[in-house]
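Deliverable D2.4 — example input (structure tokens):
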């Protein structure tokens, strides 16, 4: 287990390094009792495999995991802990059977399911790779979603727009500095609640808030992620991004304007940052500056040189020379 801040814990657990004879006992105690408060029993004749990473934030826990087939139960003994959170569970596999308060659901591929930790629960799961559970405070979510209990064990289809945005938004946490400060963590928690509420069916006021806050943040992060992952695509455009994300070009521009930026400025900054990293890498010293500029998405070398110098106060050749000198000095010093 590692912890970076009091309100930003990252818990990791895996059975990979445990002797097979100890896996069940340790998993029940470390994960089943302390994290999820579930009693776990592996499927008959199947060796237990479990790997989990849980991000614990104020009023929110995001847990990604993979596991072998098993039966997990919230028993009367465990209900004594008083935990009444709700969990939104998302699995890429079908055939998991969830039973709670007289209801039973067999999950579909990629669908989401909401269930309560305050009731007797049984989850018979198949092998599940890359699953995602989000634990939320019942009272806070209930204020945003009327008749919250009626949503328990009602499938949320995988193509629900808010659910798709939620998955993409959560997937960005580890790649960016989204959780670096208490203020950013507070915003992320708000956005996740907004998107979960939208997926479930919020009140009118909550829907307006979510659409103006959580959805915008999730869309902007998804668009930024596509830009960063496709910097060498010279045809990157607002119109193309808008079409792929199902919004208007003006909406894309408004998302960037809300951060005091523009699409063009963000794209240029990211391309320059990529070029700078490549020029600073001694392992890429054999490549020409023009090939690096091209790889970063620039088709006009003179424009690249001007923009680079304006941004960094030195030419691409200067950066490459400095990187080469640093590498030689390090070798001689060693």
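Example output (designed residues):
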């Amino acid at each position: 287990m590692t912890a970076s801040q009091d309100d930003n814990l990252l818990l990791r657990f895996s059975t990979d390094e445990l002797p097979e004879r100890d896996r069940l006992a340790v998993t029940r105690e470390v994960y089943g009792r302390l994290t999820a408060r579930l009693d776990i029993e592996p499927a008959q004749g199947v060796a237990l495999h479990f790997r989990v990473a849980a991000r614990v934030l104020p009023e929110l826990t995001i847990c990604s995991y993979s596991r072998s087939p098993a039966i997990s139960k919230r028993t009367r003994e465990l209900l004594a802990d008083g935990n009444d959170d709700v969990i939104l569970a998302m699995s890429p596999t079908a055939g998991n059977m969830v039973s709670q308060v007289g209801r039973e659901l067999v999950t579909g591929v990629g669908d989401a399911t909401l269930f309560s930790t305050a009731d007797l629960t049984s989850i018979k799961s198949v092998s599940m790779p890359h699953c995602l559970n989000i634990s939320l405070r019942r009272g806070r979510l209930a204020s945003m979603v009327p008749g919250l209990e009626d949503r328990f064990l009602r499938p949320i289809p995988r193509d629900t727009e808010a659910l798709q945005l939620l998955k993409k938004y959560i997937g960005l946490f580890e790649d960016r500095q989204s959780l670096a400060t208490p203020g950013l963590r507070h915003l992320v928690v708000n956005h996740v609640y907004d998107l979960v509420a939208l997926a479930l069916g919020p009140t009118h006021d909550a829907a307006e808030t979510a659409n103006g806050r959580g959805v915008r943040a999730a869309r902007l992060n998804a668009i930024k992620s596509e830009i960063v992952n496709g910097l060498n695509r010279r045809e990157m455009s607002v119109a193309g991004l808008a079409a792929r994300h199902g919004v208007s070009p003006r909406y894309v521009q408004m998302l960037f304007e809300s951060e005091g930026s523009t699409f063009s400025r963000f794209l240029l900054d990211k391309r320059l940052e990529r070029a700078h990293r490549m020029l600073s890498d001694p392992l890429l010293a054999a490549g020409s500056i023009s090939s690096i500029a091209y790889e970063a998405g620039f088709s006009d070398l003179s424009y690249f040189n001007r923009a680079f110098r304006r941004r960094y106060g030195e030419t691409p050749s200067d950066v490459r020379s400095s990187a080469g000198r640093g590498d030689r000095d390090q070798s001689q010093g060693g």
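Residues 2-229 form a domain with the Jelly Rolls fold (CATH 2.60.120.10).
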